[in-house]
Amino acid sequence: MKGPITQKIASSMIKVNNLQVQFGKRVLFQDVNLTFTPGNCYGIIGANGAGKSTLLRVLAGEIDPSRGTIVFGPGERLSVLEQDHFKFDAFTVLDTVMMGHDKLWAVKHEKDAIYMKADFTDADGMRAAELEEQFAEMEGWNAESDAAALLSGLGVKEDQHYILMADMGAKEKVRVLLARALFGKPDNLLLDEPTNDLDVDTVMWLENYLAEYENTVLVVSHDRRFLDSVSTHTIDIDFNKIQQYAGNYSFWYESSQLALRQQQMQNKKAEDKRKELEEFIRRFSANVAKSRQATSRRKMLEKLNVDDIQPSSRRYPGIIFTPDREPGNTILEVAGLSASVDGEILFKDVNFNVEKGDKICFVSKDARAMTAFFEIISDVRKADEGTFNWGITITPAYLPLDNNEFFNTDLNLVEWLGQFSEDTSESYIRGFLGKMLFSGEEIYKKASVLSGGEKMRCMIARMMLKNANVMVLDSPANHLDLESIQAFNNTLMGFKGNILMASHDREFIQTVCNRIIELTPNGIIDKMTDYESYVTDPLVKEQRERLYR
């Protein structure tokens, strides 16, 4: 492949001209012409495998495009969220962050080396003076305190700032690498799944940080709430094309769905359709929050031409749960449940009843706690202590965190799904696979070769066959693309039975759940509230601190 032609342009921006990326015979995308400007955050969406991460890597210069040019503003600094968690193991945490500004780090390194010389010459003095000037221009004297402030904001404690990266845990490393990417407020910032392994407080800190960011940000994320908080634009990668739209993910999704419904209503007058779209834009703009990026987004939406809103060509899975019967008065009773791993207590003294209409999100500082709880009530593992009891009217359907054991088989998809159905006829099974976007010869694919997202869609089809009235869901958004997450989310919002779930997807939790139960080593917190109210409640915060001591 031919290397990218990277040029400098007169004003601050990234310009992509006639870009094509091809691997062998497969064209990932082609004829891409985009401009990314300062003050905007571009949320990149697309199906799994569409090329979201590849686009970032091309812009970063890590992959050469097959054709086209990428043009940066003069002297602009590009920063990328590093994906290699072991790359800086030989350096301290603080040094790793400051190395994110490579020019500043090079100047500091050379300057320090000169001052260490035993035979300091006049030429060394002149060079040191030059470097000192450059260092001051880049605000080098504040570098350590700025790096420390970023680390603290991202939840890395001060006593960890001077230890080696090799001695940091995996989740802490993620935070350090994120601080490294943000350090020095680069002109262009590329973030690939920046919220992975972050707790909700850190994600909210990052949202606030990026919402006020004055330079250019491109971000790939499956976290819809995060994308909605920070994005001014949406970059959609679909069918070898990349298109740019004004507004965040929710605006793109809702407006494209509205345009699709209008397209299907042949009898509706063009003027009425236009008025409907204009009213939608007005309503959406009025709800935008007050951050700098949100204000920028609102101004764009107000100027948006309704002709720019296009029907979505995306295919969404048909996730439909149809309970055989309504849950009775007794749903689930839990008394004195406790669980541990290798002597470490995950939770204890868990006591609660599930009531009609409850859609419960389980949370914990230790993700293993939710998995253990779901495995216990699904008879996959034994509790250390305590009991649970399902009501006689209850049919639960369980979506486990780890589904690999289900796919260690030579069965094709029709045969695989047939294991869980009373009706094993191919036409019946094909209908469910079709709803999960498996078509044509794909239904004869071996279950063992499926991707993570395909396995999840098969597991959802398995749940659909059960006609359950209680859903037990351990991280339902894992491995799914945004289309599948959105379809799953929409279905659960309207589900007539009960839901017990754990998820990293805050939009999922916020829109589906009406009760939060936190599992701790010293009991539970049980609140009838939505997720955002729960995580921002100061009384809950105090209670949590006591229970995790």
Defining key terms:
single chain, 549 residues, alpha/beta, Rossmann fold, six-stranded mixed beta sheet, 22% strand, disordered N terminus
Assigned CATH class of the domain at 332-410 and 460-547: Alpha Beta
Please summarize the sheet with the most strands: 6 strands, mixed
Overall strand count: 19
Rg (C-alpha, Å): 26 Å
Shape label: globular
* Estimated helix fraction: 25-40%
- Unreliable spans are 1-10
Strand arrangement within the widest β-sheet reads 6-7-8-4-9-10
CATH topology type of the domain at 332-410 and 460-547 = Rossmann fold
**Overall mean confidence score, pLDDT:** 91
- For the termini, the CA-CA separation is 56 Å
Number of helices: 19
Strand content: 15-25%
Descriptive notes:
This protein has 549 residues and is an alpha/beta fold. Among the domains are: 66 residues, no CATH class; 167 residues, Rossmann fold (3-Layer(aba) Sandwich), CATH 3.40.50. The chain contains 19 helices and 19 strands. It has a six-stranded mixed sheet, with helices on both faces. The longest helix has 17 residues.
List the helices and strands and how they pair.
Layout: E1 5-8, E2 14-23, E3 26-36, E4 41-46, H1 52-59, E5 67-72, E6 78-80, H2 93-98, H3 102-115, H4 122-137, H5 143-153, H6 170-182, E7 188-192, H7 200-211, E8 216-220, H8 224-230, E9 233-238, E10 241-246, H9 249-264, H10 270-286, H11 292-303, E11 332-341, E12 344-354, E13 359-363, H12 367-377, E14 385-390, E15 396-399, H13 413-418, H14 426-435, H15 452-466, E16 470-474, H16 482-493, E17 498-502, H17 506-512, E18 515-520, E19 523-527, H18 531-536, H19 538-547
Parallel strand pairs: 1-5, 4-8, 4-9, 6-7, 7-8, 13-17, 13-18, 15-16, 16-17
Antiparallel strand pairs: 2-3, 2-5, 9-10, 11-12, 11-14, 18-19
Helix pairs in contact: 3-4, 9-10, 10-11, 16-17
